[in-house]
Amino acid sequence: MAAVLAELKRRSGLSYQELGRRVFTSSSTLHRYCSGKGVPGDYDLVVRIAKECGADADELNTLLRRWRAATGQEPERGAGRESGQRPAPAPVRRRPLGTRFVLAAVMALVVLCTAVASAPYEATTTVPTPAGATSWAQAPKPVDPELFGVTMNSSSGAMPSFQTGALRLWDSETRWAQVEPVRGEYDWSTLDRLLDGAEQEGLPTLFVFGGTPAWAAPEARKAAYPDGSRAAPPDDLDDWDAFVRALVGHAGARIDAYELWVMANHEHHYNGSVATLVEMTRRASRIIREADADATVVCPSITELWTAEAHEYLLRFAESGGYQYCDAAGIKLYQRQVTDPPETMLEAVRDVDRTFQRAGYHLPLWSTGTTQTVTLNDPLQDDTAADYAVRFYLTGLYARHRGLARMYFYAWGNGKIPLVLQAEGQPPTKAGLFVARLQHWLAHADVRSCGHGLQIALPENVWQCEFLMPDEHGTLRKARIRWTHTGTADTSVGTGARSVEYLDSTAREVDDRETEHITERPILIRYD
């Protein structure tokens, strides 16, 4: 194993120090691994090291076999793509619970890889894979319906007519300046309409703070809204405390979570100091938790995650102690360009994960929106919009291993953005209907792995997540969702396949000798 790692490192040209920085391991520890004086405790670290060095699928399979041998496990016969056979099971041994869990995850990945290793495939295009896409496997865990959130671009109280899992209130006439136009005088009418609608639908609601009233910071710069609100903290933080206390007291349990500021590192939304933002976070968190111990406190959201400046801001907020007051971290996930595949968001998730590891925090991540310039882009074609909407949420599910727990699509009710799920007063678009169908597929499902390309013996442009889903009798059966981020590919449906379902609600029966044409529109394959 050490010889393979050493050769990969040499080939990459990376120093021990640089490679260690990328995989969050000390250079001395890496040197021990590459010289054979130490063995990584889990295979995930081996994968991270190898992938940073440019390892291909065969090299990853070789490393897996040698890591298993180095950690005292029986090497699997015929493992990898060369044999085309499922590896023989290793002897059962008693191990501590933590070790057994790690090995279970490794074995799940082995099974996932070898299950499709012998399947023939043909890709019709050769394309680069988006950065940050690490394949993973775990013990099966339920798919949380609240992953499928939407931001409400409406103040009427009307709700989506297609299935959704959670609501976020922003651009819904619920900014601080609109709720408290005069110090101590509150207009709850719009908020109550929205909360009543959410309550009737049984949807959890995230309230977003932002838009300081002009009376609270009269000399500050105006925000990008016509209500005169300010992109600054209030001059007197007692005004902040009073608003938070009044809001939580009025809404009670109807609000499930609070995002403590919107786009905190964007000067059009906040141009105060990090120290003041941390203090606002501390105060709001204390008030919310005293009033509602079950509410989720989401730290101020960070945008422009493609830039080094955003990560520097996140680090400053973390080093100032801001994240200790929160249950989750708010981030803004979106593509660099609206026409980029949704899977490109994984690069930002990876970078956020690295930044949080540097900061020493491991909070769940909530993606709470997009860039404020989204309305300046041209609409996507209907088919592209529908495919991208579904893959927006699948990308969020794919990033689960990095702590991503919630995705809020921006936005419901707005018909003047590039990708529309449903304009208020109109029926759902194809994109909205497809998102509802995806949620129907994943209702009561447990996810156990996600991967892509050669890492799981598929064409490089093919992505896959594997689940346990209840059949018509309630019995959990294996199922896979497959798609491409661009182009097409023909893949075997795999051993035990019995049906393929499509987002337009059609389906066909198959057997394991058939191939399926995989496109940018996800499909569901069910197995016996």
Structural account:
This protein is an alpha/beta fold. 34% of the residues lie in helices and 18% in strands. It has 14 helices and 18 strands. The protein has an eight-stranded parallel barrel, surrounded by four helices. A seven-stranded antiparallel sheet has the order 2-11-12-13-18-15-16. Mean pLDDT is 88; it is low at 74-120.
Mean pLDDT: 88
Instruction: Compute the number of helices.
Output: 14
Strand order of the largest sheet: 3-4-5-6-7-8-9-10
Q: Indicate the radius of gyration in whole angstroms.
A: 24 Å
List unreliable stretches of 5+ residues: 74-120
Strand content range: 15-25%
Helix content percent band: 25-40%
Report the strand count: 18
Biggest β-sheet description? 8 strands, parallel, barrel
Termini separation comes to 37 Å
Global structural class? alpha/beta
